[in-house]
Write a structure and sequence with these properties.
Blueprint (H helix, E strand, L loop, with lengths): L4 E3 L2 E3 L5 E2 L12 H5 L5 E3 L6 H9 L5 E3 L2 H9 L1
Length: 79
């Protein structure tokens, strides 16, 4: 599949678009469509290997506040 990350057990691609899966109907969590309409979306991701997922979540409007470590922040800023 083309997933680069997950939020609340929901998968998203490199543009932050939802990737529907079989488990969506059995998952008890906010949908990514609902999350995108929430004003403040705080995400926590640690490790430079997560930079693609972080960038996709920001691009897709799934996160607008980030808690991370300095190595990951440097990776994101060097983009």
């Amino acid at each position: 599949n083309n997933a680069v990350g997950t939020i609340c057990a929901r998968f998203f691609d490199k543009s932050g678009k939802v990737i529907p899966t079989d488990i969506d109907a059995r998952t008890i969590s906010i949908s990514l469509e609902q999350l995108a309409t929430t004003p403040t979306k705080f995400g926590v991701a640690i490790g430079p290997e997560k930079s693609k997922a972080i960038e996709a979540a920001i691009e897709g409007g799934l996160m607008n506040v980030l808690g991370t470590d300095s190595d990951t922040a440097e990776q994101l800023l060097s983009g």
